[in-house]
């Protein structure tokens, strides 16, 4: 879990993923020689901004894992505006930096003066922070025999699973995307490149979902039948059949809300089939996201099997 | 109206349109030899998923009719989540099937425990239904001298009108789309294929709209000047002029809400001109949608004229 | 400011930009011979609807300025529905025309019968107006030594700045877009054409933003670090560095709401870098929008510098 801890500590809120991208490029350069087969590394800022693609063999399916995280942007007068949809509780530790140096401050949450139902976010710190600075949760990485807990398991755990998948992958594409937490914006061009270059139109969304009354921690990786969007049923059923036949622990999710990089696939002018497949977490979008190790293991096993069979 | 009844009875909620697609393929195979001219049938799951295109002559205009309907997905603990935006009244009859067999159950609607303004949807049935199963309204097709009434006239009546239009069509494309009721997702690639292959960038949205204080049942097919989106005025005015000159009964609609497959055309990277043209219905998105036969007749007549002149 | 006044007076609500387009075509034809270099004028209704592109030299960056304005569409029974998001106060003067002639009427605002929080918009006029007619604010253009005030400075001032920029531009594209106030719809195809024809993927959004507690009238043109969307930070920082080095008065904006033509760039399948750069106004989306002349001057100066250096 050392790699996962490192990933969780790297700041990369939506729009500022470059730090994560550089880390991954280094990681792949260093480790891919020992993988089953080294991938083609596609990275070109002019064409893919801060995204990164790993292409293995003759790909039939693409795995999308987003690099970015939720966070906060400093506004004026000590106010903060959210990046994506963070849970906000007074006292959360936030970190960042501006021209004056390192920042380690505390989140404040107060009702708006004119509307008790709206909250105003702010920070407590020894000085004013330069407007436009980004803040992310301070990482407190915790591990037990059965769980990992940290901010940003969504989606550093998805990135981690994709990197572990890469170790043995024969055929497939791993696409590391940007801006997922804040409305998307990179999957459209990644998807177009992948389709036009490789003819691939099958996708798996390698991301973290929610523990709910129907999805239990420790009961296996989730195959999502729907969230706010509905994937084509025929594709999802193929995935369920593969999971069942392989005897890999898994559970199905049925939600009416929530979304993922799949939104950009569904809206694209390419006939993507897609399915969200990922471990569930509790304490979603807080500094205390927690995932059962059993679900991480089944997530990786399921991805390995799916990439062989789809 | 036998064909319309059959169409209304086929289950095809968003994401599971394949049953409808297979029916249409059979129907076209069987009936197109007797049409004015047989179309080119474009259907290829790898490129168009469950969509279907009929191409006639040298097309200048494309007609989009969506195949899918609203419905419900079974969640956990006897809860339902909506597919699209169904009206929900306790007691509506729902049908479907899961691994244990046929389902005929009843919709329940209750206030949420924690928020009286939110409704929780559920079902009453003799057994639990497998999570992820889809349910649709049970079809009770009713016909009088002047009206038809059923669930899913939106948009099986649009599909019906498109099939009747096909009987005499010389030049044009009929595109049967998916996912319209649940945010879209197929029109982007259909539109791209149509534009790139045929250079067509004029569209008519063949769908059913609402009876309102300004749109009366029996007063003719609706030409929509706007809903939540605003089409280019110049194109809409051409359509109005054709309708007037042909002496076909019609009325104009002006709304600030609502949408259609046109959303995906408006957002696309192709300069589509589009206009919604369709009969109005009352009891929208219930099992009791009702349309005046006079408006069906004027809808078909208007499409025939528009496809000749646009 | 004579040109700006003319632009503010021309009616061009979203979907009906053609009047503005014709004016610009005439203006460019008349004035471009005296510009530093005449641009290639790209205008073809079949490919670009009512949009217009001016291409100078070897472009590296595209400037997007939207032509359309907010307004109202006449519904039934003397009701109005908004085009875009106008501020609505009873008594605002509205103008338009229908088949019966010129219209000069007054906006009415009343609580909905069934919901005190919803407003019903209407008009007072000596006769009924034909449903579907568009109304826009009556233009009362006011100028002082330090300010200009009128309806539709958003975005006729952006259009004006783009035309003044054109006078000295060596390399770059100016794209006049449609539908920005009502959800967009032209930038996707403009962006695609620009990228595929010229390889350009850097954008500046030439539009008007808001005076807020952090953005003051008269303190210089705004460089927006974010609104509801977050641009790639690396690009925005390049723009800030150019502004600082050139010593041009400017201020930064950090918001969690609001949007612009950038939405369509962010969602596109092209890796656009974009940044909103424009003067701030007070009384946003009213007939009394007001902008400091100093901010107009710094907006133009900043665009000139950015187009040289980006």
From TrEMBL, chains A, B, C:
Keywords per UniProt: Aminopeptidase, Hydrolase, Metal-binding, Protease
Protein name: Aminopeptidase
Pfam families: Peptidase_M42
Transmembrane segments: none
UniProt-listed Gene3D superfamilies: Peptidase M42, domain 2 (2.40.30.40), Zn peptidases (3.40.630.10)
Family: Belongs to the peptidase M42 family.
